[in-house]
TrEMBL record:
One of its GO terms (molecular function) is transaminase activity. The lineage of its organism: Bacteria, Bacillati, Bacillota, Bacilli, Bacillales. InterPro entries: Aminotransferase_I/II_large, AspAT/PAT-like, PyrdxlP-dep_Trfase, PyrdxlP-dep_Trfase_major, PyrdxlP-dep_Trfase_small. Belongs to the class-I pyridoxal-phosphate-dependent aminotransferase family. It comes from Staphylococcus americanisciuri. This is Aminotransferase class I/II-fold pyridoxal phosphate-dependent enzyme. Keywords: Aminotransferase, Pyridoxal phosphate, Transferase. The keyword Transcription regulation does not apply. Pfam families: Aminotran_1_2. Its cofactor is pyridoxal 5'-phosphate. Residues 74-420 form the Aminotransferase class I/classII large domain.
Length: 429
C-alpha cells in the first residue's frame, strides 16, 4: 500500500475506526498523490509558473476565440439536453473525420467510431475497467505521467513495470522497451505509449516508431495479448521531423489479432480546452461484430459511472469542428506560439555553460522538457526556486525536473533558465 494511503488509514483508525472498516479495498488503497497538482498549488504565487499542463500567456489562458464565442451560438437543445453515454453522434462523426485526416495511413474500416469520454483521464480509466484485472502487468515508460499509477496501480491493482526511454546521456532510446518486451513471460500485457511524452516532450521519429511497432508485433507473434494504450493528449504539437501520425495508426496497420490498439485523444490540449472535458476512445478493430460489442460494453461502463458527458462541452467542440475556418487559424496561432517558445528553450538548455549543472532529456514536441540536475536534490531545488526566484517547476523524482514552456512567455524563457542555473549553483555551493 502507498505510504500516503497508509498514513490516511492510520489517521482514520485513530479518528474513526468504523469508517475505515466500512471502506472497500479501493477506498482503503486510495490517496491523493503529492504530484503535479500539489506542486502546482505551491507555485501558484510565483511570477514564472512553469508547472502546469496548460498553455498560458501574459493575459491568462491561451484559447481559441472561436471556441469561446460559440457559447452564443448554441440552441437550448444543444446546451440542456442529455448527451447519450457514447457522446453526441454528430461529434463522434466529426472526430472520426479529424482522426482520418490527421492519420492518412488509417482507413475508417480499421477503427471504431470514437466514443466521447470525459476527457483523456476518463478514457484511460475506462481502459482499466475493461482490460485490467488485479495483478495484470502494465508497462509504463520510466518518464511518465503520474496519474497512470493511480489509475492502473491503485484503482485497478495492476502490477506496474517501468521501461526506460532514455539512455544515461539523456538520449531517447527504444532499446529499453524492446528488451522489456522480449523478456515478457505473461500471456497478456497492457503497454502504455504516450508521445509527445509527459514529462519530457519527446516524440519518436519514423524509424523509432517502426522499431517499437516491430517489437510489439514480435511479442504478439509469440501469442501474447498486447493491449497497446496510446495516450495522444499532446497530439499535433510537433516541432521537429518526427512521426506525426499517431502510433495507434502504425499499430493498427500491423493487423495482428493479438494486438489491440486503443487510442485516447481529445480537445483538452489539442484544442486548448482543458476544462471542457471532451476526449475520445477509439479501438483499432475492423470486424463489425467486435466493433459493436466493444461499443456496447463501453457504453455500459460509462452509463454505470458518470452516466454521460456534458452536452454544452460536446456541442461546443462539435461547433468548431463544423466551422473550422477561423478555428483552425486560432489553434495554429497557439501552436506557433508554443513552437517559438520551444526553439528558445532549446537554445537555452543546451548552452555549454550549463552542462555542468544539468543534462537535458531529448525533446522535440509538446508542452514540456525535463532536465536531470547534477549534484543536488530536485525537490530542494524546486522549493529554492519558489522561495528565491519566484519560479515554479515540477520535481519529478530526486534528480529530474520538468519545465512547462507552455506557460512561460518566449521573452521570459532565457531569464527562467538563467535563474534555474543560478539556483542549482546556489545549492551546489
Ligand atoms: C499524458 C497525459 N495524459 C492525459 C492527461 C489528462 O488529460 P485530460 O485532462 O484530458 O483528462 C494529461 C494531462 O496532463 C497528460 O499529461
Amino acid at each position: 500500500m502507498n505510504p500516503l494511503a497508509l498514513t490516511l488509514n492510520e489517521q482514520l483508525m485513530a479518528q474513526n475506526p468504523n469508517l475505515l472498516d466500512m471502506m472497500s479495498d479501493l477506498g482503503k488503497n486510495m490517496y491523493y498523490p503529492k504530484g503535479i497538482l500539489t506542486q502546482s498549488a505551491e507555485a501558484k504565487a510565483t511570477d514564472y509558473n512553469a508547472t502546469i499542463g496548460m498553455a498560458t500567456n501574459r493575459d491568462g489562458m491561451m484559447y481559441a476565440d472561436t471556441l469561446y464565442d460559440m457559447f452564443n451560438h448554441l440552441s437550448p437543445e444543444e446546451v440542456f439536453a442529455y448527451a447519450p453515454p457514447q457522446g453526441l453522434e454528430a461529434l463522434r462523426d466529426l472526430w472520426l473525420k479529424k482522426v482520418l485526416a490527421d492519420n492518412p495511413d488509417l482507413q475508417a474500416a480499421q477503427i471504431t467510431r470514437p466514443i466521447v469520454t470525459n476527457a483523456l483521464t476518463h478514457g484511460l480509466s475506462l481502459v482499466g475497467d475493461m482490460f485490467v484485472n488485479p495483478g495484470d502487468t502494465v508497462l509504463l515508460p520510466a518518464h511518465t505521467w503520474g496519474n497512470y499509477n493511480l489509475i492502473y496501480g491503485v484503482r485497478h491493482q495492476a502490477n506496474i513495470q517501468k521501461y526506460p526511454i532514455f539512455d544515461e546521456n539523456g538520449h531517447y532510446t527504444t532499446q529499453g522497451l524492446v528488451d522489456t518486451l522480449q523478456a515478457v513471460k505473461q500471456d497478456k500485457i497492457i503497454l502504455i505509449l504516450n508521445y509527445p511524452n509527459n514529462p519530457t516532450g519527446y516524440t519518436p521519429t519514423v524509424d523509432e516508431v517502426r522499431t517499437i511497432v516491430e517489437a510489439v508485433d514480435e511479442l504478439a507473434k509469440r501469442g501474447v495479448n498486447v493491449i497497446t494504450v496510446v495516450d495522444d493528449a499532446y497530439f499535433g504539437l510537433f516541432y521537429e521531423d518526427v512521426y506525426t501520425q499517431s502510433i495507434f495508426t502504425a499499430l493498427t496497420n500491423v493487423n495482428n489479432p493479438h494486438i489491440l490498439p486503443i487510442r485516447l485523444d481529445g480537445a483538452t490540449k489539442e484544442f486548448f480546452a482543458w476544462g471542457f472535458r471532451v476526449g475520445f476512445i477509439t479501438f483499432g478493430l475492423s470486424d463489425a461484430a467486435s466493433k459493436e460489442i466493444v461499443e456496447a460494453k463501453m457504453k455500459g461502463l460509462i452509463r454505470s459511472n458518470n452516466s454521460n458527458g456534458s452536452t454544452p462541452s460536446h456541442s461546443a467542440v462539435r461547433y468548431v469542428l463544423e466551422n473550422p475556418e477561423q478555428f483552425n487559424k486560432d489553434i495554429q496561432d497557439n501552436i506557433d506560439t508554443l513552437e517559438a517558445r520551444y526553439h528558445v528553450t532549446k537554445e537555452m538548455v543546451y548552452k555549454e555553460a550549463y552542462q555542468s549543472l544539468w543534462q537535458p532529456y531529448d525533446f522535440n514536441s509538446g508542452y514540456f522538457m525535463a532536465l536531470r540536475v547534477k549534484g543536488i536534490d530536485a525537490e530542494t531545488l524546486r522549493k529554492h526556486l519558489i522561495d528565491q526566484y519566484s519560479i515554479g517547476i515540477v520535481a519529478l523524482n530526486n534528480t529530474d525536473i520538468r519545465i512547462a514552456f507552455s506557460c512561460i512567455e518566449k521573452d521570459d524563457i532565457p531569464y527562467v533558465f538563467e535563474k534555474i542555473a543560478q539556483g542549482i549553483q546556489d545549492l551546489q555551493n
